[in-house]
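Workshop exercise sheet. Pairs work together: one partner reads the sequence aloud, the other fills in the structure field after running the prediction. Swap roles for the next sheet.
Pair: D.N. / O.F.
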Amino acid sequence: INRRDEQTVNFRPSLSLGVLNLFQISERTCAAEHEIPLHRQSCHELTCIVEGEGLFRNNDVDCPVRAGQLHLAAAEETHYIRASSRSELRFVCVGFTFNKEHADYPKYAAIDAFFSTPDRHICDDRYATRRRLSEALGELDGARVLGEEMLQLTLLQVLIGAYRSFDRGIAEGGTTADRSRMVPLLNE
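Structure field:
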């Protein structure tokens, strides 16, 4: 793996960000046919495919991926990545767990349960995950005012957006009645 715009930040032990524990955030590129060997996930890993195509494998299940998709590997799953023979594979990813002891955890319990036992590993990204993960990486570049708070909020947006992208029964935009009540409020 080698490219000018790559960046990987690892936290051992994890960085505590309120209800989240951050283990890794990374932007990487695999050359055509490059492989990241089989490994066991120590945390959940959400990956946004930026360019190219390839194959992710979760517990012996092949998951072909392409640009514009999200991939989820749950903690304790075995995981493998291979770029296609036709192109390099560029992706951004975040490794995390939820802090079950945190006071806000009950709000995120359903999301944590989904990430722990996903019913599928691939979906289209509908919530600008790449941009938000790039913003999160930017917060780690230097000492910024309230940097950890911004990092936490950005990562929560990433994870909530991913959960919604995986169609977990989240209603988009509410009902027509809800929207018609909101328009006058917005106009005011």
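Discussion prompt: DSSP finds four helices and ten strands in the chain. What would you look at next?
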